[in-house]
Amino acid sequence: MQNVKEYIAQHKDRFLQELIELLKIPSISADSAFSQDVLDTAEAVKKALEKAGCDLVEIHETDGYPIVYGEKILNTNLPTVLVYGHYDVQPPDPMDLWNSPPFEPVIKKTELHPEGAIFARGACDDKGQMYMHVKALEFMVKTDQLPCNVKFMIEGEEEVGSNNLSTYVSQNKEKLKNDIILISDTGMIANDVPSITTGLRGLSYVEVEVTGPNRDLHSGLYGGAVANPINILAKMIASLHDGNNHITIPGFYDKVQELSDEERAEMAKAPFSLEVYQKALDIDSVYGEKGYTTNERNSIRPTLDVNGIWGGYIGEGAKTVIASKAYAKISMRLVPNQDWREITELFKRHFESIAPKGVKVKVKPHHGGQGYVTPIDTDGYQAASKAYETTFGKKPIPQRSGGSIPIVSLFEKELDSKTILMGFGLDSDAIHSPNEHFGVWNYLKGIETIPYFYEYFTEMKKSS
Ligand code: BES
Ligand code: MN
Ligand code: MN
């Protein structure tokens, strides 16, 4: 690959400025107050793809936010890379915890990012990482080094469950036909410890409602004599884990794929410092399922977590009241072979069954998706590994992630192709949290690494 470093050095300021402009648009898919901004972002992505060298770019309407499709087809005999990413972002709240406004990007140095990091909602997840692919394409097209065909599919509903993407994918199988799917929407271990994500967890997300008496009651007149929905909900939630932090839902672990001792030993080789981990989070100890390490707990093991819980009086001062209702939002991260619909059903049945007399329980499923694991003995993985080796000077470590991109398993099913997860973010980049950021070094390293993937993948495909 000729002069990719040089090209980046020459255009670095513009690459940063373009990303900053994109980050200024608050494309919050969860909040309808921002719907025009989400649509504007789709337009901005379309323009960016056109400028970078796509021959065809279309905005495909859906029942929700549009999908931006772009392509540059050199020759149908050449392999095709399909790039997926998302232009929507998570809501920024709580706002008061941001050190600078979430949609006014600034570059600041941090301990882990001595060359600076861009602070803004979506900087890492996923506008920054998606835009690396746009700039990598620009480089390959402008310097006449694009070795194969490329297609882009950038959606605007990833953060709310990708509800309309599955329909689009199943209706456009021919258009989306490819040899490999490439996604940068995950992370790596550290800037000097490159890694490639080889697995994602599945997800089942539910909301529960516990109803006691038909109205809020005086906690003196009625307290002790009727079921308090908040007390009951807390008790029910607490019972979902046992003393070893195993999940107690019957059947929950039945299909969980267990790793062999060799696989676990391989995993344990990835550099990890418990001390640094605890210090970064200001905790004096980690916590989790007995018999597993921290890295196993957050990747190859399923979990159940309350994401939010509410009910009763939370205003200033005290109000003596027994609320009529209590609520919680609960997510379960799933691992290969667990089916999210089945798990949702198991949860519902169990949660309803443990409700004591005196309350009514409702379980409302939200969204979900299957997990994913990818083998490493494929052309796709090997090409990615070689690309990292070229630009990082080190072989990347394969690593399963705890996060979810539910659409990936669907791609495999519908389009019959594997996904390579080339993430360049760090866990400490605070995605979904206040002060999300993305290292300038990481952004540019991504742009540098991606073209090598294209080159090596095309070579491997031609010779196989
Ligand atoms: N990019 C993340 C997922 C991710 C981040 C995977 C880091 C691995 C490492 C994605 O945008 C995301 O937030 N996914 C959601 C699920 C979705 C259904 C809302 C998640 O994992 O909570
Ligand atoms: Mn993402
Ligand atoms: Mn996300």
Protein model, in words:
The chain is of the alpha+beta class and 464 residues long. It has two domains: 4-200 and 371-463, Aminopeptidase; 202-256 and 302-369, Alpha-Beta Plaits (2-Layer Sandwich), CATH 3.30.70.360. The chain has helices at 4-23, 35-52, 127-142, 165-171, 229-238, 261-267, 274-281, 294-297, 340-353, 379-392, 407-415, 440-463, and strands spanning 56-60, 67-72, 80-86, 106-108, 117-119, 149-155, 180-183, 195-200, 202-211, 217-218, 303-311, 321-322, 325-334, 360-369, 372-373, 397-400, 419-421, 437-439. The protein is globular and about 80 Å long. One manganese (II) ion binds at residues 90, 125, 159, 431-432. This is Dipeptidase. GO terms for molecular function: metal ion binding; peptidase activity.
Structure summarized in a few sentences:
The chain is about 35% helix and about 20% strand. With about 475 residues, it is of the alpha+beta class.
Which secondary structure elements does this structure contain, and how are they paired or packed?
Blueprint: H1 4-23, H2 35-52, E1 56-60, E2 67-72, E3 80-86, E4 106-108, E5 117-119, H3 127-142, E6 149-155, H4 165-171, E7 180-183, E8 195-200, E9 202-211, E10 217-218, H5 229-238, H6 261-267, H7 274-281, H8 294-297, E11 303-311, E12 321-322, E13 325-334, H9 340-353, E14 360-369, E15 372-373, H10 379-392, E16 397-400, H11 407-415, E17 419-421, E18 437-439, H12 440-463
Parallel strand pairs: 3-6, 3-7, 7-17, 8-16
Antiparallel strand pairs: 1-2, 2-6, 4-5, 5-18, 8-15, 9-13, 9-14, 10-12, 11-13
The structure holds ligand BES and manganese (II) ion (2 copies).
One manganese (II) ion binds at residues 90, 125, 159, 431-432.
